[in-house]
């Protein structure tokens, strides 16, 4: 008998979750996680899509999680929920996103798609030493080279074979493509 009540309670909770809408919340600059924490403490269901990014900080390569939409997060709530009226006074939050006085809601399918995509732990592509790359622009466009090393955040050193020699070139990473 108790297990039947548990199943009914679980079913009611799942139905309640799917009847709620997703809202877009504008956060204060770089305070997405603070806003998420505070909204969750108030009983909200919050989703902050994240992605893994590789950066060079102080000469070292660092992999970190960053928000996919800086300054925004998604909040699931019922349209008559008290939580929606508390959003503006929550630490880390600026306001609910609205257009022409109407609060914006997001389709559940979009949130599900974002959840699936943000769960993939693939970092933003960086090049590794010895990797073959193709130049996308400049006088050596479509030439293949070998990536040697990073030189700061936005440039790298490549080895380009010209006139029978390997020549080092300093090039923007945006002008390279992995082969």
SS elements, strand count: 14
H/E element string?
A: HEHEEEEHEEEEHEEEEE
Q: How many domain units?
A: 2
Radius of gyration: 24 Å
Helix content: 10-25%
Structure, briefly:
With 179 residues, the chain is α+β, with helices and mostly antiparallel strands. It is 25% helix and 40% strand.
How would you describe this structure to a colleague?
This protein has 179 residues and is an alpha+beta fold. The chain folds into two domains: 2-118, NusG, N-terminal domain (Alpha-Beta Plaits); 132-178, SH3 type barrels (Roll), CATH 2.30.30. Helices cover 25% and strands 40% of the residues. The strands form four sheets. Strands 1, 2, 5, 6 and 9 form a five-stranded antiparallel beta sheet that branches. It has a five-stranded antiparallel beta sheet with strand order 13-12-11-10-14, with no helix packed on it. Strand 12 (155-162) and strand 13 (165-172) form a beta hairpin. The longest helix has 18 residues, at 2-19.
SSE topology sketch:
Blueprint: H1 2-19, E1 21-27, H2 32-41, E2 45-47, E3 50-57, E4 60-67, E5 72-77, H3 82-86, E6 93-96, E7 98-99, E8 102-103, E9 105-106, H4 108-118, E10 132-135, E11 144-150, E12 155-162, E13 165-172, E14 176-178
Core attributes:
single chain; 179 residues; alpha+beta; Alpha-Beta Plaits; SH3 type barrels; 2 domains; 5-stranded antiparallel beta sheet; 14 strands
